[in-house]
Specification:
Helix content is about 35%, strand content about 25%. Strands 2-1-3-4-5-6 form a 6-stranded parallel sheet, with helices on both faces. Helix 9 runs parallel beside helix 10 and helix 13 packs parallel to helix 14. The structure holds S-adenosyl-L-homocysteine (SAH), iron/sulfur cluster (SF4) and FE3-S4 cluster.
Length: about 450
């Protein structure tokens, strides 16, 4: 009997890539590949890449440099580039990196088995189509093995918003929502395999508008309410949302659906109306703040997170002060901050960038404010009792690690803690990026 070939996938970028990597492993599983977590053992290495900021693509090329010796050691090794860099650079990757055997964009993963066979036959296939068919329909269903208590589920992909700085509409294509029935089926299947918390994914997840089983178009709120009926699915989350698609029915779901977790990632990017306009965000800072008020009226303990870009072309000191003011007004549980990175092909790439030292200074100032808010939000949990879904053993004996409803990482000790257990924990201390407590 021949040994099965081994597959190593390295995933960069957003959670959607994490989900896609699992689907690619399943697709190649049907071609006889088994997963490995050691690149040295692999017969196929896939880099599932991200193009969102400049450094992301550079990381891929330097990783390819590190992988080259493995090819000398194993002449059977094939290396593929998937994800958003594959979509953006296409053929260029084959020219720049001779070690690469195949290039596959994010919408054609169902064609991977044929591409793998073509690469084995000596070709260097490239597929960056945006085909009509849904890549997920054609992928084989996963092995029925049990799995950890949390999972991602992509419900919507692509983006029609065209923020002036962003490559996603080009790398992921137009917004497409998957039919609700298929998502419910996939969710039930995940639950049967031990999953208790599902995070619905989409570049504009709250813009979801999928075909419902009743012949109507379902909103994300409708989908969330249907998922809330799935037995043993204890927690539902969704990410990433755009403020302009935060509809009344979704806000109401936060008040009414117990299993919809009180946490929302709602990027605003800037607190300056001038910059928001230049970014093509199509809302003002005041619109955003009003929206937050309505969300908090529906769910007072809602934890908010966001994304911010500092140093967008033309951003003045005053614009940046407006961002700091917005952050102070909101009070985030956490937030991601990025230095503006000019992306080829996006409208903003034509505009002059600010000096890097200025970007660094603004990034630091914003990060300091957000860290302060994050610490305060965590400190406020000390002494309280929270629900934690446990995922893995901690570093200390008897300790387990999981996430609270508000997505805080919690390290806890207690009897009968185990993977997949939902337990009440009294929080006793706050560390920089996690909470500690005792199961009650
Ligand atoms: N669809 C989501 C996330 C897009 S990418 C949304 O609309 O919010 C994740 C984050 O990367 C963005 O929210 C933005 O803050 C950041 N980002 C995107 N393009 C960028 C660029 N060119 N430079 C710096 N940060 C960028
Ligand atoms: Fe990019 Fe804007 Fe679309 Fe988000 S909404 S993916 S930032 S274009
Ligand atoms: Fe990156 Fe593509 Fe996700 S650019 S952030 S991997 S959609």
């Amino acid at each position: 009997m021949t040994q099965p070939r081994k597959l190593f996938i390295k995933t960069y970028g957003c959670q959607m890539n994490v989900y896609d990597s699992e689907r690619m492993a399943e697709a190649l599983g049907a071609s006889g590949y088994v997963p490995t977590d050691r690149a040295e053992d692999a017969d196929m290495i896939l880099l599932n890449t991200c193009h969102i900021r400049e450094k992301a693509a550079e990381k891929v090329y330097s990783e390819l440099g590190r992988l080259r010796p493995l090819k000398d050691a194993n002449p059977d090794l094939k290396i593929g580039i998937a994800g958003c860099v594959a979509q953006a650079e296409g053929e260029e990757i084959l020219r720049r990196a001779p070690v690469v055997d195949l290039v596959v964009g994010p919408q054609t993963y169902h064609r991977l088995p044929q591409m793998e066979a073509a690469a084995r036959a000596g070709g260097r296939p490239v597929d960056t189509d945006f085909p009509e068919e849904d890549k997920f329909d054609h992928l084989p269903r996963g092995p029925r093995a049990s799995r950890g208590p949390t999972a991602f589920l992509t419900v919507q992909e692509g983006c029609d918003k065209f923020c002036a700085f962003c490559v996603v509409p080009y790398t992921r294509g137009a917004e497409v929502s998957r039919p609700a029935e298929r998502l419910l089926r996939e969710a039930r299947d995940l639950v049967a395999r031990g999953v208790r918390e599902i995070t619905l994914l989409g570049q504009n997840v709250n813009g979801y508008h999928g075909a419902g089983p009743d012949g109507t178009t379902w909103s994300l709120a409708r989908l969330v309410r249907a998922l809330a009926e799935v037995p043993d699915l204890w927690r539902i989350r969704y990410t990433t949302s755009h403020p302009n698609d935060m509809t009344d029915d979704l806000i109401a779901a936060h008040a009414e659906v117990d299993t919809l977790m009180p946490y929302l990632h709602l990027p605003v990017q800037s607190g300056s109306d001038r910059i928001l306009k230049a970014m093509n965000r199509k809302h003002t800072a005041a619109d955003y703040l009003r929206l937050i008020e309505r969300l908090r009226a529906a769910r007072p303990d809602l934890a908010l997170s966001g994304d911010f870009i500092v140093g967008f072309p033309g951003e003045t000191d005053q614009d940046f002060e407006d961002t700091l003011a917005l952050v102070r007004a909101v009070g985030y549980h956490s937030a991601f901050t990025f230095k503006y990175s000019a992306r080829p092909g996006t409208p903003a790439a034509e505009r002059p960038v600010l000096p890097d030292a200025e970007l660094d200074a603004r990034l630091q100032a914003l990060q300091a404010l957000i860290t302060e808010q994050q610490r305060a939000a965590q400190q406020a949990m000390v002494g309280r009792e929270v629900s934690v879904l446990f995922e893995k053993p901690g570093r200390l004996p008897g300790q387990w690690v999981g996430k609270s409803d508000h997505l805080h990482a919690v390290h806890a000790t207690g009897d009968a803690l185990e993977r997949g257990r939902l337990a009440r924990v009294r929080i006793t201390a706050s560390a920089p990026n996690s909470l500690a407590g005792v199961a009650v």
